[in-house]
Design goal:
By secondary structure, this protein is an alpha+beta fold. The protein has helices spanning 10-21, 78-90, 121-124, 127-141, 152-165, 174-191, 228-239, 243-254, 259-286, 294-309, 314-320, and strands at 31-34, 49-56, 61-68, 97-101, 106-110, 117-118, 196-198, 207-209, 215-217, 224-226. A hairpin with a 4-residue loop joins strand 2 and strand 3. The termini are far apart.
């Protein structure tokens, strides 16, 4: 554990400024240490933030501190993320946020100690946790708007512009993949979009699993008012390789399976793969963490997008909406 003192790094300076700004902590006696290693591959985990275990009051209080990474500050709405964290905590779906330092892009949370751990894909593939997670998502969607409308297609446009401005090197077919998004976007818009509040990033690394299989959601950077089928499509795409395995998740969500809704989910999955491929490519340029395999992660997401967009019958999915 580190006691706040004259800082040695920029990140430590931010931690200590956040501790000093939190009225419930005494900087002279509060200790902290890094909580999670950043890993982009095989799981995209703790790479867009720095996190710390914080101990106060002689060990009587344990908190979790998350600092948003500067290199994604223009991609994240910190106020909406904090609002979402608070709302989900009120529902019992996430750790309680205890305080925020806007200047440091820092949020203190109630700590989830052992046996709580980040879920793995294998944990969430089973019917019971899958159904529980979808039920949580539907409860969130039934709540009040977060006040931030978000579309994966708008996100792709933003990232593409940033990468072009940075003169980034992208795969030769990146332009083709980008052009493939236009008919998907148009078809979904023509079919109609009903935006609902959502956690927005249901990857397994953002789900904590605890005693008796209890689940909690973390990382609210993608929270907003989103098409629920986008989130469901992302969920399906991470957990399963085969569409026959994915369809039961739609049945859990809608109570039945329709080809139109399922195809919508699959089209969103292709767009999400491109979005995160571009985001990983941007972080490969921007991030000071040279040991994190952003490029490897981006290449994997480009590959999966390419496989779906290029498969026989893909255009039929678009026409089916």
């Amino acid at each position: 554990m580190t006691t706040p003192a004259p800082s040695q790094t920029v990140v430590e300076a931010r931690v200590e400024a956040a501790i000093a700004a939190f009225a419930d902590l005494d900087p002279a006696t509060t200790l902290y240490r890094p909580a999670l290693p950043a890993v982009a591959s095989p799981s995209y985990h703790a790479v867009e933030s720095d996190s710390f275990d914080v101990v106060a009051d002689g060990g009587k209080r344990r908190l979790f501190l998350r600092l948003g990474a500067d290199e994604v500050a223009d991609l994240v709405n910190d106020e909406i993320a904090f609002l979402a964290a608070t709302r989900l905590a009120d529902l019992g779906f996430s750790p309680r946020p205890l305080g925020r330092s806007a200047a440091q892009r820092a949020v203190f949370y109630a700590s989830l100690d052992a046996p709580w751990r980040a879920a793995k894909i294998d944990d969430l593939m089973q019917d019971e946790p899958a159904a529980r997670l979808i039920a949580m998502q539907k409860t969130i969607a039934s709540g009040v708007s977060f006040g931030r409308s978000w579309s994966v297609f708008d996100g792709i446009d933003q990232l593409w512009a940033l990468l072009q401005a940075a003169d980034a090197t992208l795969p030769d077919d990146a332009g083709w993949l980008l052009r493939a998004m236009a008919p998907i976007r148009d078809a979904i818009a023509a079919a109609g979009v009903d935006l609902k509040p959502a956690h927005g990033d249901p990857h397994s690394s953002n789900v904590m699993i605890g005693p008796h299989g209890a689940l909690q959601l973390v990382d609210f950077d993608m929270a907003g008012d989103i098409d629920p089928y986008y989130q469901l499509g992302v969920h399906m795409n991470e957990l399963f390789q085969f569409e026959s395995q994915m369809k039961p998740l739609l049945e859990m969500h809608d109570g039945h399976v329709s080809d139109r809704a399922f195809n919508r989910c699959r089209l969103y999955a292709a767009a999400d793969d491109l979005y995160w491929a571009l985001r990983g490519s941007l972080l490969e340029i921007r991030s000071p963490r040279r040991s994190v395999e952003f490029l490897k992660y981006a290449q994997w997401r480009f590959l999966r997008c390419r496989m779906l967009v290029g498969r026989p019958g893909f255009e039929e999915l678009i026409r089916s909406l």
